[in-house]
Amino acid sequence: xxxxxxxxxxxxxxxxxxxxxxxxxxxxxxxxxxxxxxxxxxxxxxxxxxxxxxxxxxxxxxxxxxxxxxxxxxxxxxxxxxxxxxxxxxxxxxxxxxxxxxxxxxxxxxxxxxxxxxxxxxxxxxxxxxxxxxxxxxxxxxxxxxxxxxxxxxxxxxxxxxxxxxxxxxxxxxxxxxxxxxxxxxxxxxxxxxxxxxxxxxxxxxxxxxxxxxxxxxxxxxxxxxxxxxx
Length: 231
Hints:
This protein is of the alpha/beta class.
């Protein structure tokens, strides 16, 4: 009888210990994500006024990442547009940011989702930023009534439903205001697509190992507007 009681007590201790450890790991992931977001915000503030510090842009950092591997603190899904140089925007250096770029920052393709999953599951990156930008040609194409040529049409078709819904929800928007609204909604759609297509990311978010935030970069001012703070 005493052995049974001892076993039950041991099981109970292990059970509550596992809960405590899980909670600590989740808190650690959340803290790392918040720390990473703080670094990105600070870096962008420097970029806006062009007072850059160029952290981790050294020979030593290059050699370290070559021999010891990468440990990025953030993943950024954004557009391929040449006016959106991710590391420069956030004033970060080698090995800091795992960047995934595709026209229109859409998250439909398996290679895009797979890249994001790799960063989360294998590199244990705690922060995922989905970032669109002003004056986006891909989003503008989604608003156009003229079908694009070649494979560009596939990108256009991915954005058209977002454009149509935005027009329906905001019938009075025109011109630049409409483009910006569709751009923001396209970012939110990309986030939703990631969560709907990737059980890995969904599980990482539920376990508080990954935090997703959404943003809009202004190509003229250099400033990043944070749409959602994430969870």
